[in-house]
Amino acid sequence: MQNTPTKKTTLKVVILGDSGVGKTSLLNRYSTGTFTGQYKATIGADFLTKQVVVTDWTGQRHVVQLQLWDTAGQERFQSLGVAFYRGADAAMLVYDITDPSSFDHLEHWRTEFLQQIGVSIPALQEVPFPFVVIGNKNDKQNERLIPAQRAEEWCLRVGGNRPLYRVETSAKTALNVDEAFEELARLALQYG
Ligand code: GTP
Ligand code: MG
């Protein structure tokens, strides 16, 4: 079989969600394979890069340089963050399965983000932008307050004809963390 050359691409990804849902922890797990139980608020926004190899829907291999932007969930640090939304190719919407308000705020994060990057929110049948929805802290099953079903329904509703991809992760145990970022890269390539 003939080898098709691998394409090189850089993708900008923004991680959004309430303070404390685990955005920084997911990035740390993904980039360095580490986890700490200590909380240190992110101020403004910061980015790191990671290279992944992704095969797209046509079978084409891509070497993707992911530029991952960690943003602040705390309101007082958010205004610094929005400037970094520009040029994003994909976004991750993170909630905590034990924190209902973090789930309720996903709609706010999504619309605010789209507004900032200048994408108008179209009819429900159209999907304006590649989002991946992450239910984090899956290791805390006995404290779960958001059933998977409820989150699925939201992804179906806002996704219109193409439900938003959703997965539950744990930055603590590493469950589905690599998978989530790979899916995000794959989706961004598809939209791009
Ligand atoms: P801001 O920077 O304020 O927006 O918060 P953040 O979303 O970056 O949250 P962060 O990653 O700092 O995590 C908040 C707290 O949740 C920390 O104490 C983490 O240790 C903890 N945490 C993050 N992910 C997980 C997880 O998957 N499981 C468990 N049990 N704890 C987690
Ligand atoms: Mg953070």
Topology:
Blueprint: E1 7-16, H1 23-32, E2 45-55, E3 61-71, H2 75-81, E4 90-96, H3 100-104, H4 106-116, E5 131-136, H5 148-159, E6 165-168, H6 177-191
Bound molecules: guanosine-5'-triphosphate (GTP) and magnesium ion (MG).
Question: Roughly how many Å apart are the termini?
Answer: 28 Å
Kindly name the structural category: alpha/beta
General shape: globular
Spell the H/E element sequence: EHEEHEHHEHEH
Question: Helicity range of the residues?
Answer: 25-40%
Number of strands: 6
The side-by-side strand order for the widest beta sheet comes to: 2-3-1-4-5-6
Strand content: 25-35%
* Poorly predicted regions: none
> Radius of gyration, rounded?
16 Å
The helix tally amounts to 6
Largest sheet: 6 strands, mixed
In round numbers, the mean pLDDT is 90
The hetero compounds bound to this protein are: guanosine-5'-triphosphate, magnesium ion
Mind explaining what this structure looks like?
With 192 residues, this protein is α/β, with parallel strands linked by helices. Helices cover 31% and strands 26% of the residues. It has helices at 23-32, 75-81, 100-104, 106-116, 148-159, 177-191; strands spanning 7-16, 45-55, 61-71, 90-96, 131-136, 165-168. A six-stranded mixed β-sheet has the order 2-3-1-4-5-6, with helices on both faces. The protein is globular, with a radius of gyration of 16 Å. The model has no long low-confidence stretch (mean pLDDT 90). The structure holds guanosine-5'-triphosphate (GTP) and magnesium ion.
